[in-house]
Design a protein that fits this description.
This protein has twelve helices and 23 strands. The structure holds pyridoxal-5'-phosphate.
Length: 441
């Protein structure tokens, strides 16, 4: 049933992921449960790495954008697939370090890196920091000077390409909290500033044009604009980039409104980018820079599903039917945040035809707490197991303890066997940081 081997329907009529029966998974680990197929994660990491090796002479590095799903096991997998990681906070960096991830292969982002995050990044020896503010350049300089070190940095630039799923918008005056616009000369000004810093080594530029993008031309256009900028700066400041980082953003399948791209198909996104870089470098007489990309969603989204148990069913006659599951916005806030669409199945009745259109309601005290409002399912019964697909990215990483619900555990399936990569929370975890001041006792 699945074009990439991750999801199948087994002989019992149950959904399976990576060879593990979803009904057995819930029996063993309970629900809600995040489940990841290790093979798919590795295949995605490999396709990007191999494309850089085969089409760009290996002169680059794939950085897993760990904000999509950050836990120690993910960094361990990335390390074993010989790719790097990007982090956007001290917490993600700490998680990577705990997993024994090589700091030199880490690129640090953030539009407001805290003083202690910058200091921690330098202590760890992070390979690259992407500068996104003047004050930050000053702070990294000061921290590097204190250590008698020189920190490699990129500058985050905004090429004025705003990418959407199937379209892009070119904006003359980009309005974003991220990056320095090329238009108007802001990007060049910060480059000139960073070049005056003795303890910063400017290696090049970074841009990230958006997320869930299917249109290859968006990446091509961004590359063209960045290289045109690089050529201009070479003329004015005599600085040519050694590194260009084009961020992530490659789209994934959530519903049949999205393209279904086989693993091998992601090669073409990188190929288009590589061709554009080669062409522009030839045109502007620039040396080919080291190429970095930062895919997050496309590596983990389709590798993951979430399993739930149906606990209550409510029909509002003539209006809608609510199937209430044991999760909700505390473990998947994306519908509440972005009206994101998903596909769901009954994992224990995976061969039955869909006969109903229903809303999947969470258990939080918010009327808006839904996983979605237009799922096609067979008529659900109490105790059925609902699988929501493509939940591997930005679900666990956005989870909270809202209503003091426990954040579900995550398991990783390898050759049909599942193991915890994130253990279940307990009620003790919830009160661990709580304090009652003496005067309240
Ligand atoms: C979010 C983000 C990414 C990853 O984007 P995906 O859409 O998950 O591939 C990469 N780089 C930066 C700077 C980001 O903010």
């Amino acid at each position: 049933m699945n074009f990439r081997e991750t999801l199948k329907i087994n002989e019992k009529g149950h959904l399976s992921i990576g060879g593990a029966d979803c009904v057995d998974l819930v029996r063993e680990f309970g629900s809600p449960l995040y489940v990841y197929d290790e093979a798919h994660i590795r295949n995605m990491m490999r396709i990007y790495r191999e494309t850089i090796e085969e089409e760009y002479g290996g002169n680059g590095l794939v950085l897993y954008a760990s904000k999509a799903f950050s836990c120690e096991a993910m960094y361990a997998i990335a390390k074993s697939e010989r790719i790097g990681a990007d982090v956007v906070s001290g917490g993600e960096l700490y998680t990577a370090m705990q997993a024994g991830f090589p700091a030199k292969d880490i690129c640090m982002h953030g539009n407001n890196k805290l003083p202690q995050e910058i200091s921690y990044a330098l202590d760890c020896g992070v390979g690259l920091i992407v500068v996104d503010a003047y004050s930050e350049a000053d702070r990294i300089e000061a921290e590097a000077e204190k250590r008698g070190a020189i920190q490699d940095v990129l500058i985050r630039i905004n090429p004025g390409v705003e990418a959407h799923t199937h379209a892009y918008v070119q904006t003359a005056t980009p309005d974003s909290k991220f990056g320095f616009p090329i238009a108007g000369g802001e990007a060049e000004k910060i480059a000139a500033y960073v070049l005056t810093k003795k303890h910063l080594r400017l290696l090049g530029y970074h841009c990230h044009i958006g997320s869930q993008i299917f249109e290859k031309q968006s990446f091509v256009l961004a590359a063209e604009k960045c290289l045109k900028f690089a050529a201009d700066v070479k003329k004015t400041l005599n600085f040519a980039p050694h590194v260009l980082n084009f961020g992530g953003g490659f789209g994934v399948w959530y519903t049949d409104a999205d393209e279904k791209i086989p693993v091998e198909g992601y090669r073409t996104y990188l190929s288009a980018l590589i061709s554009a870089v080669k062409k522009a470098c030839a045109e502007y007489h620039l040396e080919l820079p080291r190429l970095l990309i930062e895919p997050g969603r496309s590596i983990v989204a389709e590798a993951g599903i979430t399993l739930y148990t149906v606990g209550a069913i409510k029909e509002i006659p003539g209006i809608r039917k609510y199937i209430a599951i044991d999760g909700g916005m505390f473990e998947n806030p994306r519908f509440c945040l972005y009206r994101s669409k998903y596909t769901a199945m009954l994992a224990n009745r995976a061969t039955e035809p869909c006969t109903e259109r229903v809303s999947l309601a969470g258990k939080c005290c918010e009327s808006g707490d839904l996983i979605g409002d237009d799922f096609n399912l067979p008529a659900a019964r109490l105790g059925d197991i609902v699988a929501v697909l493509t939940t591997g990215a930005y679900n666990y990483s956005m989870a909270s303890n809202y209503n003091r619900n426990l954040i579900p555990p995550a398991v990783l399936v390898h050759e049909g066997k599942a193991e915890y990569i994130v253990r279940p929370q307990t009620y003790e975890d919830l009160v661990r940081a709580d304090v009652i001041p003496a005067r309240l006792k």
